[in-house]
Amino acid sequence: MTPGTAQKRWIVGVDLGGTNIVVGLVPIEGGEVMGFRTVPTDAQRGAKAVVDRIVAMVDEAITDVTASHGTTRDAVAGVGIGSPGPLDRKTGTVINTPNLGWRNFPLRDLVANQVKLPCTLDNDANCATYGEWWLGAGRGVSTLVGLTLGTGIGGGIVLNGEIYHGCSDVAGEIGHMTIDSNGRKCKCGNYGCLEQYASGPAIALRAVEGIEAGASTALVEMVDGRLDEITAATVYEATVQGDPYAAEVMKDTAKFLGAGVASIINILNPEMVVIAGGVTRAGDTLFEPLRAEVRRRAFRSAQECCRIVPALLPGTAGVAGAAAVFKRENYGAV
C-alpha cells in the first residue's frame, strides 16, 4: 500500500439459505463481491455444524481478499448475516426457521464470537432485496419490493432507502401470504401460503402430481422415470425444450405469483418489484403471464407505475444486502 493512501475497507456478507451458504466481501463503498464462495448448508447435520461452516467460510474469504489486496484483517469492518426468519434483530436471534429447523437460536453472537468481528443479523430475503436496491436492479429506486424464489419464498420491502421491518421484524414474509384459504398445508402451520404453490419444491410437487394424474410429458424421460428427482430446474429445462405440460406448470406458477404480486402492488404501490431465484431463468415464459395476471388483478394506476423485473445479482444479492445492512447499522447510510 502506498504511504499516505487510505486502506481499502471491506464488509463480509453471509447469505444463509435452506440449501446453500454463500459468503463474500463487498467494498464498503459498494462494488463487486470478492472472495465469493458457496457450499451446501447441510442443515440436517445440526445448527452447530452450520455455524462452524459459516465461520470457516468467513475466515477463508477474508484471507483470500486481504492477501490479494496486500492488506490485513483490520481492513474488514465486520460481518452482515442474512438468515431465514422470523428473527429478533436486536438480540441477533433466529426465532424460527421451518426450512432449517431452528428455534430461538443466537446466530449473530455465535458467529461474532468465533470470527472476532462485529456482526449484524437480518432476514435473508430482506438482505437480497436490499442488495438489489443497493447494487442491482433497484439502483435509483425509492420504493421496492423483492421476492426470492428458492427452497421457500422470501420477501423484502425497501421504503425510502431503508428496509421496512414492521413492529416485530416480521414484515416482508411474502411467501406466507394466503392465496387460497382452503389450500395446501404450509410448514408455517397456515394453509394456502404462496410458498406452497410457487417455491422451487412446490413447482416440482405440482409437476409430479400432474404426471401421477396422467399428464404426458418429457419430464418423465428426463429423470428416467424417477419422479422424486424432478425439480423446478427440471421443469424449466423441459419448458425451454418445448414441453407443453412443463410450460403449463410454469404458466400456473406465474399466475400464483401474479396473484401475490398484485396484492403487494395494491397495498404498497411500489415503483418496482424484483423477482429473484432460479425460476426466473424461465424469462418471458414466467414474466409475461405474471405481468398479465398483475394487470388483471391490480389497480391500473398502481400497476402502470410499477416495473416487475428479474434480479440483476443472481447468487450475490444476499451477500451484498447483508453487507449493506451492516453498513446501515454501523455507519448510518448506504
TrEMBL record:
Q: Give one Pfam family.
A: ROK
Q: Where are the transmembrane segments?
A: none
Top EC category:
transferase
Q: Name one GO molecular function term.
A: glucokinase activity
Q: Does the keyword Transferase apply?
A: yes
Q: What is its EC number?
A: 2.7.1.2
Keyword set, alphabetical order: Kinase, Transferase
Tell me which InterPro entries the record gives.
ATPase_NBD, ROK, ROK_cs
Q: Which family does it belong to?
A: Belongs to the ROK (NagC/XylR) family.
| The protein's name | Glucokinase
Q: Please report the organism this UniProt entry assigns to the protein.
A: Longimicrobium terrae
